[in-house]
């Protein structure tokens, strides 16, 4: 019987994260859901664990089980403890879906209304959206534990990190410029780390998904204040006339990144029924092309 993968899904109790958690659980993998919402996290983990056990019993097989770890990914201390708990319980980390994210609710502090001008500088900017959405802690901890895996004898890789960006990390998004900035940052992080993590002594692939508006998100997300938010879309009229992308396209993108070992440092746009690899911008001139090639050649620590 093939070894069950140890999969961590941050923000795995709702929205896109729940789609991912459900998919990996259906494959029989050992899934650990990280979420700041303990009630939802425990309920979803129990639901998926029961479904996995039932399916595996019918197939006369053994699943890896579904667990929950309460974790605010903006807290290094909490996330470090959650990763350690997974490693101690399962003995390895193979796939990390760095998915947790929150919205930028209300008018951005970057562009205040006229009424806000008077006391604008007395209010400290709310930057939680950047702390959560950049996912640097999940990436850092993922590579730490994945480097302890034995490389796959065929591919040479030790694990796979998949970050959730967004198509607003590829396009302008005036309603929420800080949210857009956070998702642009995820794209930059993944493209910059790909050449480093792909080095033979590291042996980790890192890629990103850039979903459009998925039907699951709008059916299941509800608005919460920013300080406790784990959901994105809300009930804003902004989404009333959106063209929805099927949930199945997200799963298709996940599987493409896991199965195609040639993909590293790449961004997959998830739109309609399509999964499209989105290359970086064209290089403007020969001088920039030379310098960028030097950066890639230099990589890190060489």
From TrEMBL:
Under PROSITE patterns, the record lists: ADH_SHORT
Q: Which family does it belong to?
A: Belongs to the short-chain dehydrogenases/reductases (SDR) family.
Family annotation (InterPro entries): NAD(P)-bd_dom_sf, Sc_DH/Rdtase_CS, SDR_fam
Keywords of the record, alphabetical order, are:
NADP, Oxidoreductase
Name the chain's protein: Uncharacterized protein
Q: Write down the Pfam families for this protein, in alphabetical order.
A: adh_short (PF00106)
Question: Which organism is this entry from?
Answer: Xylaria bambusicola
One annotated GO molecular function is:
oxidoreductase activity, acting on the CH-OH group of donors, NAD or NADP as acceptor
Q: What GO terms fall under cellular component here?
A: cytoplasm
Does Manganese count among this protein's keywords? no
Q: Superkingdom of this entry's organism?
A: Eukaryota
